[in-house]
Amino acid sequence: MKKQIYSVLVENRSGVLCKVAGLFSRRCFNIDSLAVGETEIGDVSRMTIVSSGDERTIEQIEKQLNKKLDVIKVKTFEEQQCVSRELMLIKVKYNKGNRRDITELCDIMKAQIVDMSKHYMMIQVCDTPERIKVMLSLLQSVSIVEVARTGTLALSKCMEQED
């Protein structure tokens, strides 16, 4: 199984997300991650879709995306060809015994405590999907209350000549 990141520029109008999601659904392609937002051009949005499959599936996804009328451009890249980030908010229950451990972990993982009460704290992590998974696994020993994740965002690495 190969993981592929698709950066898809689409027209920013209602129904486009539904059409793209329907494409994946009809063909039984899995979406590992999906993030959508406006670009620097107001009427254009970027969908960052992470999917996995064999070589044939990966090729089919790209071909099917390119056939959609609302799709302006499709770029594909593997993880080493791009800079990718994900945002996670995680609410944990803490006590006197583990508070220092949690704050030290946040320092090491470059996470921020963004909200706190007497028994709970909310941690924000913006990092690669792999490091997000590491942070989650390291916090498993603590009482995790809630987790919210954005999904992967990615852009191709900076080069002198872009195509």
Fold topology:
Layout: E1 2-11, H1 16-26, E2 33-38, E3 44-53, H2 55-67, E4 71-77, E5 82-93, H3 99-108, E6 112-116, E7 120-127, H4 129-138, E8 143-149, E9 153-156
Antiparallel strand pairs: 1-3, 1-4, 2-3, 5-7, 5-8, 5-9, 6-7
How many structural domains? 2
For this structure, what is the CATH homologous superfamily of the largest domain?
A: ACT domain
What spatial form do the alpha-carbon principal axes imply?
elongated
CATH architecture of the largest domain: 2-Layer Sandwich
Query: Which residues sit in consecutive blocks of at least 5 with pLDDT less than 50?
Result: none
How much helix, percentage-wise, in residues?
25-40%
Number of DSSP strand runs: 9
CATH topology of the largest domain: Alpha-Beta Plaits
CATH class of the largest domain: Alpha Beta
Q: What structural category characterises the helix and strand content?
A: alpha+beta
Main beta sheet: strand number and arrangement?
5 strands, antiparallel
Taking the alpha carbons of the first and last residues, their distance comes to: 28 Å
> Strand content of the residues, in percent?
35-45%
